[in-house]
Amino acid sequence: MPDAGRLNANDPEHIGAYRLLGVLGSGGQGTVYLGRSPSGQQVAVKVLHARMAADSAAVRRFEREVALARQVAAFCTATVLEAGLSEGRPYLVSEYVPGPSLQELIATDGPRKGSGLERLAIATVTALEAIHRAGIVHRDFKPTNVIMGPEGPVVIDFGIARILEATVATTVSSLVGTPAYLAPEQLANQPASEASDLFSWAATMVYAATGHQAFAGGHAAAVMSSILTHEPNLEGVSEPPRALLAACLAKDPRDRPGVDEVLAALTGRSRSARPVRQADAPVRSPTVEEAVPPASSPGADTPVGESSPRGPVGEPSPLDSATPVSSAAQDMIDTGDRPVRTARPGLSLLRGRTGWIAGATACVALVVLAVVFWPFSREPTTGASAGPAVTSGVLGHQGDDIWAVAIEQVAGRPVAVTGSKDDTAQMWDLTTRKPVGGPMAGHTEDVCAVAVGQVGGKPVAVTGSMDDTVRVWDLTTRQPVGGPMKGHTEDVCAVAVGQVAGRPVAVTGSEDDTVRVWDLTTRKAVGEPMKGHAKAIWGVAVGQVAGRPVAVTGGVDHTVRVWDLTTRQPVGQPMTGHEANVYAVAIGQVDSRPVAVTGGADGMVRVWDLTTRTIMGQPMTGHTHIVTSVAVGQVAGRPVAVTGSWDRSARVWDLTTHEPLGQPLTGHTSTVYAVAVGQVAGRPIALTGSRDTALRMWDLSGRTQ
């Protein structure tokens, strides 16, 4: 980082516990100060603009994004130390790395060549890999965000662009990032992905190798037009990196290599496990018989269209190798579209490239970036060692994170209901793998919890949102039932549905540290909120113990609690065993005994005997990061749990032996936030929803050993 300038009269002397020593820089995002911690450590303190001071939802988003940023491994990145609000302005404290930025170094010392360029490329793409592993997309990778420190290049400001997006009201002219290094899809106002970061990284490496930008222009609009319509200027970039950088600068994110492939190419590492890229798989709608072969079929573990099984016995197979879309959108399919390997898998449509580029270019001419409809088509790839295959790639919510999923029967057909960051819920027919109608809109913030049940003989969904409300939806009409149910004062993070004295109820957990019970017939709160957790409640499940209805909750205070829903009082003392936040709870039965299954930030999955309120056996370990979600069900008569994690995988566990059943379910490119278990055509399936926007279906019928 550059040397600090002097503080002026308008600069604060302290931010939080940090004394400010000078100004390192300022810009559109805010001001960066050199600070000193109470222990004497020098730090960088970034104070963002005070656009979010009066917006409590934006403040909570800021806090969540900072929590993600703090998960990034320290090598090749500046460690995030702390964040908070100071007089209404959000601030972020990170490790101070002395040294010039890559931009300054190239301007003064000239381009990097040979081994110097190679070391720079390897260090920075390794940093990107660590950032992506934490579930973060940088969104603003550029030369000024690479500090040439005394111990090597360090990437800074990861997560800052996301934080800004979360705290600044969106307008048609808003654009987070530096135009010269933004990917085409970002300029088209579409969600950034890991593939977008690879584009920005490659543009940065071109600058490092040549001293000029890959896409030139006399002003911002000209640069953006060049990115959208011209090939990169690679003059001065020699092989071997030239071809690699050209691939990363492809206009279509699906044509770019993955971060792991780039790192492998730079280091010469073997890529024997690389997925096969299917060049021209046609899009078709399979029949139910094709999608779900009979259990006795010899090829039940074989993907559609393959003649031999792949992977060990017990791995799930695809229920579908193609992605059907709604009939209203058939005319928008690019039949030459290729399955993707690196970006956002899931169900969507790809408009022809000419259409989106032309539309975005027209916006650039006005120097206003209007929204261009360009969702991505993302279909699964297969390979001999690529791990279990996704059964159906389904992308909903036009490219936003899927927070929650639940399974129900509507008119005799299995359906899923998902909740998303786009403030809506969506229903999906699990037999056809098609969305049912449009999004269910009404919430004004993320829909982060979904449960399903019956009210008056009709199937309903109950949703909880970051807008602090709970809503009920008639799944037959997909319309809201009455208005929002209000009472919580913070995000509603968890929802479960059950019965108390024969009446349907919903139980909700919130960041306001309370649990509430709602009568779903009257849509009114039942009694006062239940208090006991010291912090937010992120997991709720409803069941019965000794014939009495109970709720089980998991909290950020590391505890699990049982509540009698008739009296709304806690049952016994909190159950302890997790070493960190408890984020997920489900209820099931093992050997006819009611049990709770929980997962949390310690990466462990635990089973609790709800009769004795004690831990059963050893924790189930295998996930390498936070366990975000848990669902329970049965496979071949055996009780199982399915868990999702920040490690981008889901796992299936035998609840009797506490052992994993088969290999992890892999394929998602970001955090698996949601899991559900159900049946399709008589076969047990799991659904997983992710931050990568994909809803995936897995056949569990082979998971018996």
Describe this structure in words.
One of its GO terms (molecular function) is ATP binding. The chain has about 700 residues and is α+β, with helices and mostly antiparallel strands. It folds into 3 domains: about 1-95, 2-Layer Sandwich (Phosphorylase Kinase, domain 1), CATH 3.30.200.20; about 100-270 and about 315-345 and about 345-380, Transferase(Phosphotransferase) domain 1 (Transferase(Phosphotransferase), domain 1, Orthogonal Bundle), CATH 1.10.510.10; about 395-700, YVTN repeat-like/Quinoprotein amine dehydrogenase (Methylamine Dehydrogenase, Chain H, 7 Propeller), CATH 2.130.10. Helix content is about 15%, strand content about 35%. The chain has 11 helices and 38 strands. The strands form 9 sheets. It has a 6-stranded antiparallel sheet with strand order 1-2-3-4-6-5, with helices on one face. Strand 11 (about 415-420) and strand 12 (about 425-430) form a beta hairpin. Helix 1 (about 55-70) packs antiparallel against helix 4 (about 160-165) and helix 3 runs antiparallel to helix 9 (about 260-265). The longest helix is centred in the first third of the chain and has 20 residues, at about 115-135.
